[in-house]
User: What shape does this take?
Amino acid sequence: MLPKGNDSKKNAYFQLPPEDRMEFELEDKEKKEKEIAVEKVYDKLKKNK
Assistant: This one.
């Protein structure tokens, strides 16, 4: 079962018009890419110590 916070995010997503859904997906994708980039930087910093 999903946490309650994810459920409300999912419901909000499906209430959006299709063009807004695409923008929402792009923002979510960019957020995930930034998180991955930050993790890579932290890994490099840990290796250099």
